[in-house]
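Moderator note: this is an archived Q&A kept for reference. The question asked for a predicted structure of one protein chain; the sequence and the answer are reproduced below.
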Amino acid sequence: MNPKSLWYKVFVRILCSYNSTILLFLSIYTVPGKVKYLEPLFYNSETGTYRLAWVSDYSSGNPDSMTYNVYVNHVLYSTVGLQNLLEIPVKPGESYTFEVEACNDIGCNPERTQTTYTVPYSLDIESLHPYNSVTGEVYGQLQTDNQIPVGYLLDSAPATSDSILIKLKYKPSSIVPAGSHLDYSNVLVTKLYEPSKILNQTILLNGESFLVIKLPQQPLGKFTISGIHYTHSGTIHSVTPVWFNLK
């Protein structure tokens, strides 16, 4: 059971000519209650950081003196004050245990709130080429709109193309050991707001793997590539979904 504040009603009788009674309330603080985590927690693949967030239990303890000890793999990483948020650098493929311990000027709650997380690898788009799936012809890269996030202009594709040839690359935050490879066997390509999956296949060109997606009847919109895995030394690692926007 988490420690709670103890409230006492104290009756003080003041003897005076009016024989009056004054009712006082006394609050006795204990250590704070156990914190709870917010969901969902967030991994930023651009910065290689994990955002740890939690909710305080203000039903006990002195809220003005609360601090939080954050542990990474059971080792104290940082002590934070009023903010209930911390960005922690992490490495893809590694598993982490995060714990948060609530403290105040009385002491710390003996129960730490704990969660575990295995960091996925992350991919990005290196290039998108129009492609003719019948003749195997690869055309020049799609032009972009120079916005953030970038949009790929489909009207720059030749009329004879019926597909998009996609080359993926690892993000700078995902350092991949030598001898690893990407597994496209369970890849799923979907378009935003459309439940049906997009036809796709993986092909080899000059010894490199490319993903080919068949353009749907309404090709403009945001697409998501998921289900890719990264394999190294027999271990399978998850990869965050990749998205791109055809305009």
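Archived answer notes: The chain is about 0% helix and 50% strand.
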